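WARN retry 2 of 3 for item q-0093 after timeout on previous attempt; input resubmitted unchanged.
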Amino acid sequence: MRRFLKSRTRRRLRRRLFRLVGNILGRPAFRMGVIILFFALLTAAMLHWVEETPREGVPESEWPYATYFDTITQVGILLVSGYDAEPPKHPMGYLLSMACMFMGIALLALLTADLASVLVTAALAGKGHQRVRCRSHLVVHGWHHATRILLEQLLDPDEGVQHEVVVIDEALATPPFYDPDVHFLSGDPTEIETLRRASLQHAETAIVPLDGRLPELLQDPRAALSVMAIKAVNRSLYTCAEVLLPHNRQHLERTGADEVVCVGDLSQKLLGHVVLSHGSGRLMEELLTFSGGAQDRKSVV
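OK item q-0093 returned
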């Protein structure tokens, strides 16, 4: 158990490190910053070539453009603070220094805009409106009592599930709890844009449980709409759906659901087994429960 928790912690840290590096490399500000710095180095080379000869009356050892590395220092000063650097003597050098000043202004504006974007994204993340960037994750439609039980099973350490989970619900104003492997997204799970924000196109499995908050006559149609939306975004995604009434199973299968679990059928069949074989209900509950059941399942079997 301790070994599993350590491996899970390392896996989380490694996943978040890769995601952090990927987010930094993928940001437009980083790419534009690299381009600006490249042109700054190119400008430094041209400025050194133009201003290599010292100004009259200035010793060569004190001339800030005498070597290429000294010129890079001057260009860095021009990027950050403008004409605090030694002004060039050649007209072409003045033009190059002005170009460095404008590149510095552009770099500062770019960093300011990117910082504002990060702050806005962080504010939206607290309300569940951010775009989740995951791969090979599980997407769960709806947050209610049954979803909480489902997450307890999926995230149980005895089971060893290694996937991240994205929960979509339009009534989520703030995340109900914090877990580094669970992301809560506010939005309608039947809308295409919401599913794209959940990175459904990169998911491994979609789970559509029944929404007990709706009337019974609306639960199965809502599940069918969710499956149709999932298949519209990712046709090959493995989808598990829950249906309440047995005669609605065929409708869920027509929408493209790969696995359909009928609550009515299972409950009636389980009740029949319990009547015929006393104690079979407890056995089935142990077999279907991950947490705290490793030793109990062995003893029952």
